[in-house]
Amino acid sequence: MILSARWRHLIPLSLAAILCVQLSHAAELNLAVVNCAKYENEILAPPGSGGGADPIDTVMWLFGFAVASAGERVMYGDSLSPFGFALDTECKANPTERLLDAVTAIKSKRDNPMDLTRLDCSTFESRHIALRKSDPESANTLTMWLFGYSVGLAGSHVLDAAALGRFDAALEERCAKHPDDSLFDALSAPNPAVPASKPAASKRPPAAWH
Fold it and tell me: Are 170 and 192 in contact (CB under 8 A)?
């Protein structure tokens, strides 16, 4: 599988319409203390509200996190749309469910797997650098998946979109020092942008959000 600019085109217009929103807050998102209702109604805000990460990038991060949390060592190139729809359906049906539980519980169709243990760092980085030059937006989206996957491997559950640049730079540095390592090895290695593992909060969400 060749990493290419097609990442931005994996999402059909119907899903893009659902996700045509922006994060209303630039602060960290702790999946263990946010419930589905907050995710649907507050974290995702109406268009034009301003704010932080691109919503598709956010779902991409959650998808990477879910794959890592399931213990899988692959990247699914054609499966963001089913994941996004499944998460939206799960959260609408269970508004009090923790986002962490929703993300890790849903089962969605997963196609076109790429084995992360068989892609070496040097090959990945050369393709990723080329993608940054030809299509920075798609490169950013791909990096968000890798970021979410790395956080899931680390046992954390905090999304800090503002740390994406630091994550990407650290991953590039790691691959430069260890070009023969697999991409999985690089994503498993300590990264200063990846939060330390935190114990999950109680499964009972707070009664009110402030």
Answer: yes
